[in-house]
Amino acid sequence: MRLLIGFDLLDRQIVDRDGVPVGKVDDVELSEDARTLTALLTGQSALGGRFGGVLGRWITAAAGGAEPRRIPYDLVAKVDSAVHLAIKRELLAPPALEKWLDDHLIGRIPGADNAES
Amino acid sequence: MKRLLAVTLGILTAIGGFVDIGDIVSTSEAGARFGLSHTWVLLVGIVGICVYAEMAGRVTAVSKRPVYDLIRERLGPRVALVNLLGAYAITLLTLAAEIGGVALALQLLSGAPYLLWVPAVALVLWLALWRVKFSTLERIFGLAGLSLVVLLIATFKLGPDFTQMTKIAPPPGENWPTYFFVAIALFASAMTPYEVFFFTSGGVEERWTPRDLTLSRVNVFLGFPLGGLLAFGFLATSAAVYEPLGMRVDTLGQAVLPAGLAFGQVGLGLVILGVFAATFGAAMETSLSAGYTVAQYFGWSWGKYLRPRQAARFHTVVLVSILLAVAALLTTIDPVQLTEYMLIFSAIVLPLTYLPILVIANDRGYLGDKVNGRLANTLGVIYLFVILAAAVAAVPIMILTGMGG
Fold first, then answer.
1. What is the ipTM of this complex?
2. Where does the PRC-barrel domain lie (chain A) (predicted)?
3. Residue range(s) defining the domain that contains residue B95
């Protein structure tokens, strides 16, 4: 399948095999010879890098300086209105900000583990 | 019954757009000053939001993605960030106004000053969003908001001058710029962007699939006209009572009074219940939308269908937004006036929201054979020009008239 990186991949939503959001395709990683796509990069620092300038540094700083998460392109099952991964998102490292907020704020509020139905 | 309850998402979304606290007062004020001569604006607004909400609902049902998710894909991260900042500002201002509005409704019932009610309202709001199921919230507040129908019955009892409905001109003693300022404000409130964000995110929360296309359309074509009709109720009852007296409306108490004049305490009780439900519903709509837009821009996990720990960033944005809204209200700023400032941000956000929806609704990559037909595209393009004209005119007219004064 031919994909245009700029049109079909960048800024598209990545979801896991159950459709739960994982992140946006904030940037991509190419092989040394730039002929193949090796990984998707997601996280504010990847987005900040694409913005550049002061605004880019702010966006990166808002992520607490965490490195972008790297998702090997082999894990992509299908690309349509979203980028579907073949695995559950629990198998990937959690985003740093999500984990910090879970540990220090949201996870401490009673009822944080309750599913809706 | 289940089928019937399935349209409460559309009703709640529309009520949050058409009869939130700012609209209740400004629509009543429009009735008091200009009679029914703005009826056409409500009609134009209802058709416009129906056209775009139908497109947005269709995109969501088929692609299973809420529209805000797709805006960044089409506009790119920079322009989408401008949209995000504007949309978030509108949503936050409206949220603050709605919390104030619920507190004002409680003040009408209890007599205790509204500022005392603000923290309590915010706490109940947050608890509801934290613990109660999305569909339950939607049903309670969507249906309770329908008690505003009493206004429509009151309209016929009070009998405003219905001949003004066909006039597109200010009545004697009022000028054109102010007439247009009010028209733009009414139009912008009908098309507020958080309506489509909330509606389509709600569709995802309810797990719409392409089979729910009809459900989405029924929601749109019942919900939004109904919301518009309730707004007309405020316009018409105020026109009937205040216009002949030459009185102005600037408080919630004045806006609900005509129902009391028509049906005594029962009428007043029903309309206050309706205002309470509508403003609380709008507060839920805006606080969730604040979380939806930020989370969907950055690609975070979001939504009430996940456990809060699985969407910690989303829940943090909702919580922080509610706290910011309370902080804004505690400065004793007038909650009713807050939504008027929304117009400035609407001018930026409206075109940047509706253009990508129109583009995506024509993209076969997302929608296959469910792309826009000729009617949806014709209306979509016409409305895009109306939105642009309103956006360009909004700020100069606002300055010219001193916010419609």
1. 0.93
2. 8-81
3. 2-401
* Contact with chain A for residue B133, Cβ under 8 A: yes
Distances (CA, A) of A85 to A9, A34, A36, A78, B320: 13, 23, 18, 7, 31
| Percent of chain B's residues with pLDDT above 90 | 67
* Spans in chain A with pLDDT lower than 50: none
For residue B175, the domain's CATH number is: 1.20.1740.10
Flag if A22 and B301 touch (Cβ within 8 Å).
yes
How many domains in chain B? 1
B318-347: average pLDDT: 86
Predicted local distance difference test score (pLDDT) of residue A1: 59
Question: pLDDT value at position A116?
Answer: 65
Q: How far is it, in rounded angstroms, from Cα B144 to Cα B197?
A: 22
B69 close contact with A: CB closer than 8 A: yes
Q: Is the dihedral of CA B357, B361, B364, B367 positive or negative?
A: positive
Chain-chain contact of B312 with A114 (C-beta, under 8 angstroms): no
Strand-strand pairing, A13-15 and A27-30: unpaired
- Using a CB-CB cut-off of 8 Å, the residues of chain A touching B302 are 21
CATH class of the domain whose range is A5-108: mainly beta
Q: Which of A47, A101, A116 sits opposite B313 (nearest CB)?
A: A101
